[in-house]
Amino acid sequence: MYKEKTAQAVDILNEFDIDLWLTFVRETHTIHDPGLDFLCPASLTWQSAIIISRSGEKTAIVGNLDSAAVEETGIFDKVISYKSGIAEDLTGYIESKNPDTIAINYSKDNEMADGLTHGMYLILKNYFKDTPYADKFVSSEHVLSALRGRKTDKELKRLKIAAKITNDIYAEVTDYMEAGMTEKDVAEFILNKVSKLGLETSWDKATCPSVFTGPDTAGAHFGPTDRKIERGHILNIDFGVKKDDYVSDMQRTWYFLKKDEKEPPGSVKKGFEVLLGSIQAAAAAIKPGKEGREIDGVARDYIVEHGYDEYPHALGHQVGRAAHDGAALLCPEWERYGERPYMKIEEGQVYTIEPRLTVKGHGVVTIEEEVVVTKDGCEYLSEPQTELYVIKK
Amino acid sequence: MYKEKTAQAVDILNEFDIDLWLTFVRETHTIHDPGLDFLCPASLTWQSAIIISRSGEKTAIVGNLDSAAVEETGIFDKVISYKSGIAEDLTGYIESKNPDTIAINYSKDNEMADGLTHGMYLILKNYFKDTPYADKFVSSEHVLSALRGRKTDKELKRLKIAAKITNDIYAEVTDYMEAGMTEKDVAEFILNKVSKLGLETSWDKATCPSVFTGPDTAGAHFGPTDRKIERGHILNIDFGVKKDDYVSDMQRTWYFLKKDEKEPPGSVKKGFEVLLGSIQAAAAAIKPGKEGREIDGVARDYIVEHGYDEYPHALGHQVGRAAHDGAALLCPEWERYGERPYMKIEEGQVYTIEPRLTVKGHGVVTIEEEVVVTKDGCEYLSEPQTELYVIKK
Fold first, then answer.
1. Are A84 and B336 in contact (CB < 8 Å)?
2. What part of A 183-212 touches B (C-beta under 8 Å)?
3. Cα separation values, B202 from A43, B207, B244, B319, B356, Å
4. A323: closest CA of chain B, how far (Å)
5. Which of residues 113-172 of A touch B (CB under 8 A)?
6. Which of A66, A240, B128, B340, CA to CA, is 20 to 30 A from A233?
7. How far apart are CA A263 and CA B359, in angstroms?
8. DSSP string, A199-213
9. DSSP, res A95
10. For chains A and B, what is the number of CB pairs under 8 angstroms?
11. What SS3 state is found at A56?
């Protein structure tokens, strides 16, 4: 996987006309640059430079005690080991290549491409202060965003497996749940399944799964509580698993029938249908070349036009090694999203579509699907939810 | 623990004459600022500001979907929730406090205080570009280093428990090991113990434990291999456990007797005695007010004076929530250590002491002890190794 992705990186450097891509890190076990997930599996303790050139040369400059493990990866053409300090080897290497542009690992807009800490940036600038290269640093955000976003077949396969496992667990949850159980009961059931499969959750266990039952819950990003499932509740779950380093991120919605109900009340059915419609409309609009804000707008308008409040977040984000995999987002033009609403959708990217709406007195309807962008549209990564799951127990 | 440490932070702000301490982060599940371990247990998705003032006010400004979980922590006097963007709330809050100095979360010398990414730094500077506060940012490294370093009684208790568990596992390893086993066999035995105790290792499992047997091994920071333990080998292990968020980091050394040996050969015994002597000399030299380079020099000189090569790394680092816990180091004046050799040792800090030396033809002798700095010296956190562990099997 590392060899495949570093080879892909060389193509991207040529596409974007970048001579060298320098990823500058230290103590990666503590502060982990997400870009390293494609560049080097070994932990790097001291100041370390991972350098890829447009000619295809892959070089690592690392502290002496790290060099054996880095060589062992087989990724690098050259591993330079230093004892006292990296400055001489690093500046010497760059001078020998004499690049016009050096992309370095920071980004304002994409946190997944922003692994360079400010302290490390100051150190790097200082090393190059008396050289012509100090003015040649640019952000590597476009390089890394393209590399993260454009999934290889191997990556897609892993993402599909993670999504399938998630759907399978949701099917078991449907059989398991009954009124009277707490949100925590449901979360525990899911975590046990994950643990038995020998997997990890896609993000912190404290909120993965998130389980929300009934009206007036805490909103997203809050852990399961002791609140009991009551008949008449809408319940939703947000959850995903990590399998072979790739994750899923999917939401599903259930309704618990009251004793005298044969089917969910009209308001719940309508809420579900509108939400489903907004997802299908968004999915139909996705294709390479569109901007994320256009897709967000399709779902947001659909929901508002049907009489519901707009969702207070983005429609969807990319998924890959991380549940929030960075760069282009399906999001509105809000300050907090910076340049991301305007980024173009590309073939091979994987996005979530996850609108939400509230049905008064019952709870929140939310579905989160994952889609992969194809040449002229998109495909679901796994079976989508097309009917409200109704529970009688 | 969070309340205890944030209260300690207020005292430190007053000690260092800092008006506000601002920790600026986003997507903390992906890029985790180590300083958050003392400030906020909740995951923060969008741009978020954790602000502590010298008057004792603790404020969080976070995205709307994160605010319930942040309020739930009970740490903050005020949680400000935003939807579109943080800029207005953040600049408004700072203006209302009108501070002379704002410490922010970056550091050149201490990676454990360098959680602000360069992209986030640029964003922050931009928010304040038309205000008088843009010139009032300073590094929070001294604040956070003091907070990390000065362990409370509760923290010390946890560190001692982690060290004790590590020593207990080492005792079981001594009973278990025999010639013919591989480094991987030994590592697996240790990882099973850790797993049975429901604990995690202190750092990546791939190199925790590290196991090195015999001469010409890969050096530190390399995972266990299929190399077999032979009689006449010196074997060393580097390992630690995380218990209740606090870790240990300790090394031990064994010798495997040859069939005809009653005791280790003279060269091995001498190597062990010299190494032990260097640790005891360093421990005797530690006290508040000394600089780390002085202590490193004591051990380094001791080893060189006894005819061995100096170790190619620092003598010791701090331990706490992380195995490499940042700031002051017991290290030589090498470029890669920046200002750290000159930092002063303080009461309540916990350091490792971990020299190494090679005994030709047998392997590497290395012991790593943990000590806590007291008012006028230091104490071992757990039982130190004072005799070479000799195995006949």
1. yes
2. 203-204, 206-207
3. 14, 10, 11, 10, 21
4. 9
5. 113-123, 139
6. A240
7. 79
8. -EESS-GGGSSEEEE
9. H
10. 173
11. coil
Residues in chain B: 393
Q: For the range A274-277, what are the long-range contacts, defined as Cβ-Cβ under 8 Å and sequence gap of 24 or more?
A: A274/A302, A274/A303, A274/A306, A274/A308, A274/A357, A275/A303, A275/A355, A275/A356, A275/A357, A275/A365, A275/A366, A275/A367, A276/A367, A276/A385, A276/A386, A277/A302, A277/A306
pLDDT tens-digit profile of A73-98? Answer: 999 999 999 988 999 999 999 999 99
Q: Which has the closest alpha carbon to B316: B303, B304, B305, B327?
A: B327
CA B386 from chain center: how many Å?
Answer: 24
Angle between helices B87-97 and B118-127 (to 10 degrees): 70
Tens digits of per-residue pLDDT, B151-207?
999 999 999 999 999 999 999 999 999 999 999 999 999 999 999 999 999 998 888
Domains and CATH numbers, chain B: 2-148 (3.40.350.10), 150-391 (3.90.230.10)
DSSP bridge pairs for B23:
B50
Report d(CA A273, CA A271) in Å as an integer: 6
Inter-chain residue contact B312 with A83, CB threshold 8 Å:
yes
Cβ-Cβ contacts under 8 Å, B85 against chain A: 334-336
A218 touches chain B (CB under 8 A): yes
Mean pLDDT, chain B, integer: 94
Q: Tell me the C-alpha distance between A118 and A126, whole Å.
A: 12
